[in-house]
Design brief:
The chain is 84% helix and 0% strand. It is mainly alpha-helical.
Amino acid sequence: MPAWLILAVIIIISCAITFLAFKILRSFFAVEELEKFKDVTGIYVSMIGVLYGVFLAFIVIAIWENYDHVNGNIDREADALGNMYRDANGLPPKIKYSIDSCVKKYVTIVVDEEWALMGHKKQSKEAMAVRSKLQSLIIKFKPKDLGEQVIYTTMIANLNELTVARRIRINTSNAELPGILWVILIGGAILLIFYTACFYVPNQKFHMWLAFGVSGLIAILLFVAFELNYPFAGSEGLTPDAFQSLKNHNIQAVDSTSAKKDSGLINELKN
């Protein structure tokens, strides 16, 4: 469903609960009773409103920080791949083209296949196999001089960064807010709406419109929490821009720079 439609549905449900709360409370309590206890009601409404507002703000901020952390982690994974692809130019031709092939294939699989799977809390086995092959190539390589040793050490560090970043990306695609917190969020919102309806205002229609505003704001915040709770799904899901940029620009730039220099070696390796 489009994000705007989900938001509209949540707001409508929230306003419907508000309207229902007014009808139920007015059927149980007369206006005179509400006026009589308006001071006490005001204290309870303020107390519940503050407690719920703090809890809701804490949840939204925590979800946003996780969303931002996942986005930064994607950039680190793409940077590690780009660094390995660039550093491979200083290695012997055979290992260089093997690493290049693995990096290109990994990026292509992540962009074209795995990203869609993560929206369903899955990962690509093919991408994992390519990463394992890349790891095997780098670990088994034996440096022959100081220059290759420096490159090898750097590539091991980037391989570790890639491994950690990938694991975090996959784990966060499966992570979500615990169900008990959603129960508290939704239950607290309904309770606050009912207490708001208990508050006495002489003009009932004006009171109801004020309550609609409160319930609408709560609905918007719940929608934000719901959308950001799944970093790789929904209209606000993260996109593979870092990998796409690596695929379209960084890798191609390295290829175009070394194409003429290595064309003879490529033909030799193919033969």
